[in-house]
């Protein structure tokens, strides 16, 4: 973590857990993904920077999933689990039932595996995470719902978009200002589930 990074400094000053908070703030301000009262499923939630922002907007139930622990956030049910674990479906469905959630208004993923520095490998790993998130999400997303996913851009990005965009009215690709400029990370936004 670069302690001279302006987003890091700002996050500390504004009591956000990570600089990533400003990514979701910018994306949501531009695309209105999450609104008050929405039920949200979030992948890759730890340490909770996105979760804090989302809870402040929705003031409703968030189900957050991460392989790493996360300190509590108001109105958030946290599931500490690897999304590739076979029990992930059951765990999410149980949390939904416990909180009277039939389906989600928005699903967000900032999930990423540890980077290796090998671009093709990092892209492939992020692609597989996005595929898994979509497999979990599509049956649990309401009509009209939205999904955001982080992916390292690469040669499978277009294939991924082509595969999943048919479930939605349209999609966008964005790179928030808070993303490091040298990073290949992009955010794929699928809007208005059909």
What can you see in these coordinates?
It is found in: Cytoplasm. The protein is an alpha/beta fold. The chain has a single domain, classed as 3-Layer(aba) Sandwich (Rossmann fold). Helix content is 35%, strand content 25%. The protein is built from six helices and seven strands. It has helices at 6-13, 21-31, 49-58, 88-98, 119-137, 157-164; strands at 40-43, 62-66, 76-80, 104-109, 141-152, 168-174, 185-193. A seven-stranded mixed sheet has the order 3-2-1-4-5-7-6, sandwiched between helices. α2 packs parallel to α3. The chain is globular, with a radius of gyration of 16 Å. The model has no long low-confidence stretch (mean pLDDT 92).
The ordered string of helix (H) and strand (E) elements is HHEHEEHEHEHEE
Which class of secondary structure composition applies to the elements? alpha/beta
Number of E-type strands: 7
Strand order of the largest sheet: 3-2-1-4-5-7-6
N-C termini distance: 40 Å
- What is the number of domains? 1
Number of helices: 6
Quaternary assembly: single chain
């Amino acid at each position: 973590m670069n302690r001279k990074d302006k987003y890091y400094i700002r996050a500390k000053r504004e009591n956000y857990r990570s600089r990533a908070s400003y990514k979701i703030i910018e994306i949501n301000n531009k695309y209105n993904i999450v609104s008050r009262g929405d039920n949200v499923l979030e992948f890759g939630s730890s340490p909770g920077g996105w979760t804090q922002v989302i809870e402040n907007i929705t003031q409703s139930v968030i189900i957050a999933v991460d392989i790493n622990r996360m300190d509590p956030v108001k109105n958030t049910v946290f599931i500490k689990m690897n999304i590739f674990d076979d029990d992930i479906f059951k765990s999410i469905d149980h949390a939904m039932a416990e909180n009277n959630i039939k389906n989600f208004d928005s699903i967000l993923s900032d999930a990423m595996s540890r980077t290796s520095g090998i671009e093709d490998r990092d892209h492939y790993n992020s692609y597989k995470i996005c595929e898994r998130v979509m497999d979990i999400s599509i049956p649990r997303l309401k009509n009209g719902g939205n999904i955001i996913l982080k992916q390292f851009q690469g040669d499978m990005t277009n294939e991924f978009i082509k595969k999943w965009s048919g479930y939605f009215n349209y999609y966008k690709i964005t790179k928030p200002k808070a993303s490091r400029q040298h990073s290949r990370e992009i955010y794929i936004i699928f809007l208005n589930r059909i």
